[in-house]
Amino acid sequence: MHDDDLTRLAFATELIREAGTVALGYFGRLSTLTVNSKGVQDVVSEADVAVENHLKGRLADRFPTDAFLGEETGHADFPGSTGIWVVDPIDGTQPFVSGLPTWCISMAYVRDGAAVLGLVLNPVADELFAGGDGVPATLNGDPVRPHPGASLADGLTYLGYSPRVGPDQIVPVLDRLLRAGGMFVRNGSGALGLCDVACGRLLGYVEPHINSWDCLGAVAVLHAAGARVSDFLAGDGLLQGNPIVAGPPAVYDALVTVLADARR
User: Can you give the pTM of this predicted structure?
Assistant: First the structure.
């Protein structure tokens, strides 16, 4: 870990809590919230924009040469920048606007092709996951580790899905999981699902395509917890997304077999 990463971690820990307070303010008045559609089962609310602007502005003030990538405002690069913050202001906007508690704020700091710091906050549950390169994986400051299971039958697997992948591609994944003795769960937030793998609540996670802002905060936590994760940043994963597989080493290969080539 670089010395200045500790400074970034301390600042980001404070900042994500601030953002959680902003988001909860909107969550408490859902009936007056402005919500727009970005596509099938894909919405954006004024809360998403407000939280991202808060994060983006505070990061720019504190680390003016760091680049930024956010789901709502896009990519802002700076000459000479050595790292980039990747942010999802509300991962799980559909649950958020539906009044469900399964949404979160995700932040990752990426350098040299790796997520070196990650924080994921569920404001409703008051749960903050954090971890990174040289930073132990924690949940509200307590150490976490992946599920001890040795087969897919030993726990629940998060099956991620979005309309970027067709039904004909995802249904065979579900079929392979069930035939391998597994069981699926999905709560609308990929970042929370991945963090649930990091802390052992879930056995594994598979998804044919996920965007970087939805997962990189959790990816850093997963690595710090000792989980095995597919190379999400391969190719143009940062800007275009990629498939993802995550789980304890003992079941990782079985999870890869379940996902197979679902995106083709």
Answer: 0.94
